[in-house]
Amino acid sequence: MLENVIEFFRNLPAKKCATCGETIEEQHECYGNHCDKCTTL
Predict the structure, then answer these.
(1) Would you report the helix, strand and coil content of the chain in percent, each value rounded to 5?
(2) pLDDT of residue 40
(3) What region, left, alpha or beta, does residue 33 occupy, with left being phi > 0 and alpha being psi -120 to 50 degrees?
(4) End-to-end CA distance of the chain
């Protein structure tokens, strides 16, 4: 069962910033949806 959970998170697509569309360099399962550049604007 644990392997299925790990595989699920491993297969999540990379997150994109909701503002600029750049790939977010963080864990894909986190709640943030803006990159560092757009967060500080």
Answers:
(1) 30, 5, 65
(2) 80
(3) alpha
(4) 42
Q: What is the dihedral of CA 23, 26, 31, 37, to 10 degrees?
A: -60
Q: Angle at CA 32, nearest 5°, toward 27 and 36? A: 85
**What six digits make up the tokens of 19?**
């503002």
Could you give the C-alpha distances from 25 to 4, 8, 22, in angstroms and in order? 24, 19, 9
- pLDDT, one tens digit per residue, over 12-30 is 888 899 999 999 877 656 7
